[in-house]
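re: ur question from yesterday

yeah so i grabbed the chain u mentioned. its 448 aa long if i counted rite. heres the sequnce exactly as i have it in my notes:
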Amino acid sequence: MGRPAGAIEVRRRALVTVLVAVALLLIAATIRSGWLYLVASALLALVVLGGVSGRAAVRRIALERTTPGEVFEGEPFTARLRLSNRGRLASALVKVTDRQFAGRHPGLAESIQARRERYLESVRTGEPEARKPRERGTRSVAVERLDPGEEVEAAYELTAPRRGMYPRSAMDMEAGGLFGSARWRRRLRVEDSVLVFPRIVPIEWFPLERRTSAPTADSFEWARKGIGQDYFGVREYASGDSLRHIHWKSSARQGRLIVKEYQQEFRPTAGLVVALFPPGSQDPDVNSLEDGLRAAASIAGYLHAAGIPPWMVVPDGGSLRFIEPRSLFDSLEPLALYRAPDGGDHLEVLRQTLQFARVAASPGSSLALVTNLPAEPVLPLLEGIDGNTGLTAVLVLDESYGPGWDAGLAEARRRQVCMLAGANLNLLAVVQGMELSSCLSEPLSVIA
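ran it thru and got these C-alpha cells back, copy pasting raw so excuse formatting
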C-alpha cells in the first residue's frame, strides 16, 4: 500500500485568523508595538500547530478495507473498514472517504471554475447558489475519537457504476488538528481489487432457432442411443461392447450375442459471439458498447439457467478468444474485462469472428451474435453465411444513443431493420429507451 504526500485543508476560521494576524503584523511594524507582534505570532502559531497536529493524527492511523471480489454493476455491496490508532495520542474527528468508483478528483483550477459557474448561475436566475454536488460513487465514514490502541470497524454500501476491473481503491483520510483550525488529508492506495460484472436483466425466453416461437427447455432435448438409464433397443454384438450389456435371453434364442442399448439425453450446444466496437456516444455508462455487454451477459444468464452453458468467442487484442465456461461467472468475466477492438475494418473483424465461431461450433450448435455495427452492412454479411440455421443476431443500434435521437422513432426503426433482413435470420434489436429485457425477448419478426 503506497501513499502520496498529504495535503492540508485550511478552514475558513483559520483563514480569518491568518488575515487578522497579518493585519496585526502590519500595524505592529507601523507603530512598532511589541505586544501586537506577540499577539500576531500567537495567532499564526495556532494555525501552524493545528496543521501539524492534524498531520500527526492521520499518520498514526492504520487502515484496512475488505470487499467482495466479484460484484454486479448497479447493485450495492458491503465494504468493511477497520481503523486502528497505533500512536500514543488520540486522534479526533477522523473521516475516511472511499473513492474507488468516484473517478478523477478535480484539480484546484477546476474546482474554482465550477464554483464560479455556480455563482454566475445563481446571479442569472436569482436563486440561491447551489451547493457543491456530492461526488458520485464516494462513501464516507466518520469517527469522533480514536484513542491510542483502539480499533474501530465500520461497514458501508458501495455501488459500482460500470463493469470492469478495479484493482485498487483511493482512500482519503482526514483528521482535525488542535483548535479546529485545520484538517490534514492523506491519500492512501488500498490494494483491494473488485471485478464488476455487467448487469444481468431477466429474460422470459431467448430464441435459439430462426423465425420460431418461444422455445422451452424441453425443446432442447431429444433421445438417441448411447450410455444412459432408459432402455432403447437391442442389436448384434460388436467388438468392444461391454459384456454387462449382453441380452442373454435373446442371444440364446438367436444363437448369437445380442446386446442391449440405452437411451441417452442429448442437449445441443449454444455459442455466444460478442463483436462490439467503440461506441459513438461519449456517455461512459449509456452507450451501445455497455448495453451490448449487458445484453450478452443476460443471454449467458438465460442459457446457463436453461442448462446450456454457451461457449463464447470474444476479441482479445489482435486475436480471438474461445471460452468454454464451467459456470456463469466464467461467462461473465470476459464480458467484464471486454475491450473493444479499435482500428482496422470493423466489418472484416466481424466476418473473421463469425468464421472462427462456425469452425469452433459443434454440429447442431445454435449461435447468438451481439454486435453494435450498423444494420445495413451487417445484415448482408449475416445472410451470406452458409448454413446459418440457428443464428440469432442481436443488433445494438448505436445510432439510438446519439444526440437528436427521438424515442418515438424506435418502433419504426426496428421495423425498418427487420425489412432489411432476409428470411434466414432471427433478429433482435436493442434500442436506447426500451427495456433491455423486452428487446431480447421480442424478435423483430413479431412486429413486422
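noticed a couple things. Residues 355 and 385 are 9 Å apart (CA to CA). also Residues 34-59 form the longest helix (26 residues).
anyway ttyl
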